[in-house]
Amino acid sequence: MPSIAIDLKSGEVVKSKELIIGIDLGTTNSLVAYIKDGAPVAVKDPQGKSALAPSVIHFRPDGSVLVGEEAKEKLVSDPAHTIYSVKRLMGKSYRDVKAFEHYFGYQIIDEDAERLVKIRVNDRFYTPIELSAEILKTLKARIETALGQPVSKAVITVPAYFNDAQRQATRDAGKLAGLEVLRIVNEPTAASLAYGIGLQPDDNQTIAVYDLGGGTFDISILHIHDGVFEVLSTNGDTFLGGDDFDRAIIDHWLQQHPDWQQQLAQDRNLGQELRLLAETAKKQLSQAEDFSGVLRGVPLRISRTQFEDLIYPLVKRTIEACKNALRDAGLTPTDIQRVVMVGGATRTPLVKQAVAEFFGRPLFDKLNPDEVVALGAAIQADILAGNQRDMLLIDVTPLSLGIETLGGLMDIILPRNSKVPARVGRRYTTSADGQRNLKVAVYQGERDLVQHNRKLGEFILRGIPPMPAGLPQIEIHFILDADGILRVKAKELRSGVEQEVEMRSQYGISEEEMARMLIESVQHAQEDMAARALLEARNEAHTVLLSVERFVKQNASWLSAEEKDRLASLANALRTAAEGADKDLIHQALEALNAYSAPLAHRALDAHVAQSLKGQTVGEQAL
Ligand code: ADP
Ligand code: MG
After folding, report:
1. What does pTM read for this prediction?
2. What single DSSP character describes residue 581?
3. Domains 21-195 and 201-366 are alike in CATH topology
4. Torsion-angle region of residue 157: left (phi > 0), alpha (psi -120 to 50) or beta?
5. Which helix (H) or strand (E) holds 427?
6. Is 27 touching ligand 1 by the criterion CB < 6 Å?
7. How does pLDDT run across 71-121, given as a tens digit for each residue?
8. Which fold has domain 201-366?
């Protein structure tokens, strides 16, 4: 709700900007934060104890819902009605989660392997979106109570590796909770914002964000330049986190008390008591050298050194993942300028030590590691609210951008959800001998055929010197700036002929229209695929026919009459098939022609000739 404020310098009444909140929707814990007097703060629970809300949802017998600490207490006493780790299910089908189904203590429905999963509680089915929405509702209510005002807009964070379906599911959960989700932000991006990294418009650096949560480990390598957070690589382990440290302690104690091992099966509470004490021990060992406690009258101890021996293999696995992430980004530890620590489990001294050693530099670990993502989300929200106007915004393209290729196919150059600004290039070639002009038609949309997408504009690249089809190399560049303005550049590399055109990609397209285009692309996927397969077969026939023709012309001197006849008749058969609508027939004719011409090509003395025959089918796409 917009409120009224007075500018003390000028004495004028100013309408203050609307409050947008930042939410970290975590696998283990979730938090909400906002900007208070210029600095981000996480909102504590109504008891004022903790800002962390366990991401646990419990359904009471009467159907009402508990979220957070109270729900967490039901994990052991009533597991069938208590849902945890729902984030692992977001945007997933049953097929996706089958392999780790045993991990969940609740019932996942498998009626249709392809569709998004549902969770059964009593006789009702819930989607992960609905369940996440319960967590979001709780956070929304928490901040509304704390501030005494309604909030309706939010930024929500997700792991950098979340795909489109998972991001969309997160967005939908927000909507269901009564929140307008202004942006989905990557967790590592939010964490670096919390440390002020990337907030200066001229910041230019490469950073590593090491995030060890309750049950997941993520390492992300980001390149930050001009307010853009580019994810260079991500790696990690979806089943490795602080909870495994607890388990290591439990196993250690169970070894000393084999009698408990037997009891565990009958006595659920024992397991829970052990788990709680192990977590307490682990947390204490982040500060102290020793832990001693008592469970059911039995004294239990563990020292920091013992604990570190237990978790050493786990920590080593995270370092291996860091190595892999660097390798994928083409970097070495010395290329990393900042290392940001995220996730409650990074409070563990051995973890800090291993990470600092691996990267060879001090860590960014002064903020609460379990709060940084939410704090960064609040900063991003504040930027969106217009309170930090100098910041460039990180954004993504809502729909794919591409050009028309031979036969009316959509060739995507910049996929939907690409970060902007973006610059991508791709090479094409001509489809006819001596072609002087080339039409570049730019489209926006997800369908396979351009006729179903939205045309943004077209231009003609003129003055290409006459060359055989397939020889010109035309490089098409899409350059999308932060405001969604697309510049398209086409250049013929052999001659240097070039042309550039500017088009607006996002204007004049409403949310509804965008939604419709996305829905249609899914609905028509089947028929689009068939149409695309036919067109591709025809295109291939076209290029092969051209090159065979050229081959015969160039090698007329040594080809026998019989060989020429046979090539001509096979080419004819292919031409006829390509006029029809049966892609299998085209493929058969293609194979027959290829089978016959391949040995001839090999025989051709000139290696270049063989090249031209082969090069046609695997080379650049024709426009
Ligand atoms: P997530 O991102 O998965 O939601 P968090 O970042 O909240 O999770 O991390 C939760 C994990 O951090 C838990 O395993 C918890 O026990 C652990 N943790 C919290 N505080 C400490 C501490 N002081 N020392 C070691 N581990 C801790
Ligand atoms: Mg987290």
Report:
1. 0.67
2. S
3. yes
4. beta
5. strand 422-429
6. yes
7. 998 988 888 899 999 999 998 888 888 888 888 888 888 777 667 789 999
8. Nucleotidyltransferase; domain 5 (3.30.420)
What lies within 8 Å, CB to CB, of 210 at 6+ separation is 219, 318, 322, 339, 340, 341, 342, 343, 346, 355
The dotted CATH code for 526-613 is 1.20.1270.10
Does any ligand 1 atom lie closer than 6 A to the CB of residue 243? yes
b/e string for 511-521 if b means 16 or more Cβ within 10 A? eeebeebbebb
Asked whether 159 lines ligand 1 (CB < 6 A), one says no
Quick one: tokens of 287? Answer: 């500060």
Question: What's the CA gap between 470 and 463, in Å, rounded?
Answer: 16
CATH 3.30.420.40 fits 21-195, yes or no: yes
Cβ of residue 214 lying under 6 Å from some atom of ligand 1: yes
Give the closest ligand to the alpha carbon of residue 88.
1
Distance 174 CA to ligand 1 centre (A): 24
Strand runs labelled E in 20-110: 21-25, 29-36, 39-42, 53-54, 56-59, 65-67, 82-84, 107-108
CA of 344 to the centre of ligand 2 (A): 8
Q: For 322-353, how does the pLDDT look when each residue is reduced to its tens digit (9 = 90+)?
A: 999 999 889 999 999 999 999 999 999 999 99
Domain 401-521 has CATH 3.40.630.10: no
pLDDT in tens, 150-203: 999 999 999 988 876 788 889 889 999 999 988 888 899 999 999 999 888 778
Residues tagged active-site: 24, 87, 187, 211
* Spatial distance between the Cα atoms of 439 and 430, rounded to a whole number of angstroms: 10
Instruction: Enumerate the domain spans of the chain.
Output: 21-195, 201-366, 401-521, 526-613
